Amino acid sequence: MIQIVISSPEAVDRELQRIVALFEAGMELFHLRKSNASELELTQLLKEVPEDFREKIALHQHHRLAARFGIKRLHFPEKLRMATPVSQLESLKTQGHILSTSIHKRERFLQLSSCFSYALYGPVFPSISKPGYQPSTETPLQKLPESGCKKVAIGGIEENKIPLLREWGFDGYALLGAIWQENSKDGLKHFLQCRKTHEMIG
């Protein structure tokens, strides 16, 4: 399964050290999502990330920083995806970029451009990072529709939920609240426990 960690939307204590620790522990994909951060603030953070890890980062905002930092992964939140011509997405893919997006309705999977490698879908379970943000009742009732785009669950992901995600047709999951709302030791522990569980189920 694909395992993704999404950054805290706001600055957190020892953030850079915690990001590097996750990379050193085997984090394969890190989505840098800070919608309120300026381009300068994002630049300052990226400068501090060791170069060897930058290829594993997906940018949600300020995509033009990708070339400067050797980043090939670009994420398109739903509003940005809807506003971006397919021809532009195709051009980015041709240039070697790996594109991802966010989806909140099941039927949208079938409407996605083939340019996207995977989509974040959720919340699948009650959100940890956004109290009160509840899943749609449709999520656990049926498998997600088949499409060429891989499906990555987001929202309330914990170790014991991972087998259910496989049953519901997900190809992976993204961790957010459980990583950043706990202290750094517990966040890293949660990351490792989830990875061990999905490796066990294949």
From TrEMBL:
Pfam families xref list:
TMP-TENI
In the UniProt record, the signal sequence range is none
Could you name the domain of life of the organism this protein comes from? Bacteria
Task: Print the keywords alphabetically.
Answer: Thiamine biosynthesis
Q: Does the keyword Flavoprotein apply?
A: no
So, what pathway does this thing act in?
A: Cofactor biosynthesis; thiamine diphosphate biosynthesis
Q: Where is the Thiamine phosphate synthase/TenI domain?
A: 6-179
The reply to whether Nucleotidyltransferase figures as a keyword in the UniProt entry is no
Q: What Gene3D superfamilies has UniProt attached to this entry?
A: Aldolase class I (3.20.20.70)
Q: Which PANTHER family match?
A: THIAMINE-PHOSPHATE PYROPHOSPHORYLASE, THIAMINE-PHOSPHATE SYNTHASE
- Protein name (record): Thiamine phosphate synthase
